[in-house]
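Quick review question:
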């Protein structure tokens, strides 16, 4: 699997987020262990339709889903992309972080409850 590093989060904890385009997902790693992922479909242009976010049981309760989604959406923004949050976690995350709602096309915000 080809993975490109997207974001490195803080020193000693060894948490990193990577895009794994062949698997159509962003992954959060703790050291050399895959801790979770957010799957996406790349649609026309650079629209990322996020379908599912998951963190494995051994890694729950550490805020890794938040780290994952933050890094993934920062990467989408750096690629001048947009987001369709079909995943309930990503949709709820966007509702709590209004500075990122602009990633959802204006015409689609109401249908995701972000209008």
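Suggested answer, residue by residue:
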């Amino acid at each position: 699997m080809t993975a490109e590093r997207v974001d490195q989060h803080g020193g000693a904890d060894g948490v990193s987020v990577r895009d794994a385009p062949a698997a159509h997902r962003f992954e959060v790693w703790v050291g050399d262990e895959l801790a979770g992922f957010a799957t996406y479909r790349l649609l026309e242009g650079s629209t990322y339709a996020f379908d599912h976010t998951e963190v494995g049981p051994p890694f729950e309760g550490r805020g890794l889903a938040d780290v994952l989604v933050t890094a993934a959406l920062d990467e989408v923004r750096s690629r001048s992309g947009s987001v369709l949050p079909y995943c309930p976690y990503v949709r709820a995350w966007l509702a709590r972080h209004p500075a990122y709602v602009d990633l959802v096309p204006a015409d689609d915000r109401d249908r995701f409850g972000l209008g």
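Why it works: The beta strands are 4-9, 15-20, 25-30, 33-43, 47-55, 82-85. The first helix runs from residue 64 to 78.
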